[in-house]
Amino acid sequence: MTGAEISVQLYSIRDAIAEDLSGAVRRIADLGYTNVEPWGFVDKVEAFGQALTQNSLSAPSAHAGLVAATDVRPVFEAARVLGVQTLIDPMVPAERWTSRAEVQATADRLAGIATEAADHGLTIGYHNHWWELAQQIEGRPALEVFADLLDERIVLEVDTYWAAVGGVDAPDLLRRLGERVKFLHVKDGPVTEDPKAQLPAGEGAMDIPAVLAAAPTALRVVEFDAYAGDVFDGLAASLAYLEGQS
What we know:
The protein is an alpha/beta fold. It has a single domain (6-245), classed as Divalent-metal-dependent TIM barrel enzymes (TIM Barrel). Helix content is 42%, strand content 14%. It has eleven helices and nine strands. α2 (21-31) packs parallel to α3 and α5 (100-118) packs across α7 (142-149). The longest helix is centred in the middle third of the chain and has 19 residues, at 100-118. The radius of gyration is 17 Å and the shape is globular.
């Protein structure tokens, strides 16, 4: 994996996927993306698999609920069909980040999942929102306490925009977390909780070059939680910007 590699979180185009999965994925490939990060794929794995194959797309990572799942085996099986290497839990609710004991429980749960995942050739990761940074435990952002407690096999996907919304300097955070960060969610905007205010990379208040420099080997994953314009135009603009930073 090199710093030049770029992916896109397919949650960004969830509405287009709901209307026409094959067509939506084809549009992603037509923009120039070669990697994608699937979401909501477990019950559509055959359709996703066909779309990725037809468009020569790879899925090095994917999002799926793990911590709250009663049975993770279907997720593992679907991930392997798509060639996913790292499965990332996209969210543990804010109320689970208020104490060291709660954070420890999440870390322990992920460690157990990581053991099962290893039997399927999969790595496990976690993706943050703003609350894991805004919430302090013993004077430190909860996400950093969590990172200290994580099994060494588990990686982090740092959503750099939500980290900034949570009140931390994203490049500094990345440097503190170090090699555990294997993926970045790259997005831009006014650094507020309003997802519809998000902008293509390079068009908002985020110092994207500093973010990229702080985690030079992490896969860059473009994402919009929401977008006020045509999301495919936004994804194209972000890709062009990131390619210019390589």
